[in-house]
Amino acid sequence: MTGPRRAWRAGYVRLARSGDLADRASRLDSLLNDCTVCPRACRVDRRHEIGECGTGADAVVASWNPHHGEEPVISGRRGSGTVFLANCNLRCSFCQNHDISQRPRGFSGAAMSDEELASIFIDLQDRGCHNLNWVSPSHQVPQLVRALEIAARRGLTLPVVYNSNCYDSVEVLRLLDGVIDIWMPDLKYSDPAAGCRLSGVEDYPRFARAAFAEMYSQVGDAWELGPEGELRRGLLVRMLVLPGNLAGIQDNLLWLAHNLSSTVAVSLLAQYRPAHRVPRSPAFSDLNRPITRDEWHQAVDALKKHMEGDRHYVQAVWE
């Protein structure tokens, strides 16, 4: 005979009660002194200088709101509690949110305290969101975890979504083991040259694959769902199809299937459109068009060929 089922709790709730979350926050915060928070490792003291990400030691948030446009398992019926972090550690030439990610001067003086950020987390919970969705967190992890520790003491229990470009430090991700419930990284490129030309980093595939492997090691490829079918714990990787196969979708899918698991959930995205520097620069003329029907179907065929299971998301953009 089995006993009553225990109520589900986000991982950080247990860590907060043991005091371990405060310790993680302190260890992450120390990385700001000689910054190695992300793979850029710009080594500045972010308490007195601005890092290459355009951010200091305090959180800078562009906006927050319940979001209904994520994958259904993330947005659910009541929305995902998205916190859009300002600035970014990549310089994507086609970024559709470049006014948030690549305009640090626009957020000058907009830094907020840990207590203010914790209040945002609580507000999103009070508004009924299924989760707390950190969008572009890689360069602000210490600030986020400091605020999370405060919010946990105030009663926050939502699962945390780490919605990342995957240019992440493995050292940082290891300190997030048990803190993050849902990993939702991008895998942008399989070719270092594409990452260098399009996002300004020469080593994107190496760091992104190492980061993804660490995320996988923490939660595996299984999903834990809530009573409304919302994801509470698990991994969902996003891949944006780019013109001319610049994202290397098939290569990344092969790497996933052969090195980690062929049943990792994948969200294949067809939402690319020319934006930011692409329409204005001849250097990106190959990106200055939508993807074609054939490019989309090639990506979908690769997904079907290399990945198994029924938890994939594929936008039906063409019949």
Q: Report the major sheet.
A: 9 strands, mixed
> Which class do the helix and strand fractions yield?
alpha/beta
Got a strand count?
A: 9
The chain-level mean pLDDT equals: 95
Low-pLDDT regions: 1-5
Helix count, per DSSP?
Answer: 11
> What is the end-to-end distance?
51 Å
- Portion of residues within helices: 25-40%
Q: How large, in whole angstroms, is the Cα Rg?
A: 19 Å
**How do the helices and strands follow one another from N- to C-terminus?**
HHEHEHHEHEHEHHEEHEHE
Strand content: 5-15%
> Shape, please?
globular
Verbal overview:
The chain has 319 residues and is α/β, with parallel strands linked by helices. It is 34% helix and 14% strand. It has eleven helices and nine strands. It has helices at 11-18, 20-30, 72-75, 98-101, 114-126, 141-153, 170-175, 192-199, 204-219, 249-259, 293-306, and strands at residues 61-67, 80-85, 132-135, 160-164, 182-185, 224-225, 231-240, 265-269, 313-314. Strands 1, 2, 3, 4, 5, 6, 7, 8 and 9 form a nine-stranded mixed sheet that branches. α10 links the parallel β7 and β8 (265-269). α2 (20-30) packs antiparallel against α6 and α10 (249-259) runs parallel beside α11 (293-306). The radius of gyration is 19 Å and the shape is globular. 45% of the residues are buried.
Which secondary structure elements does this structure contain, and how are they paired or packed?
Layout: H1 11-18, H2 20-30, E1 61-67, H3 72-75, E2 80-85, H4 98-101, H5 114-126, E3 132-135, H6 141-153, E4 160-164, H7 170-175, E5 182-185, H8 192-199, H9 204-219, E6 224-225, E7 231-240, H10 249-259, E8 265-269, H11 293-306, E9 313-314
Parallel strand pairs: 2-3, 3-4, 4-5, 5-7, 7-8, 8-9
Antiparallel strand pairs: 1-2, 6-7
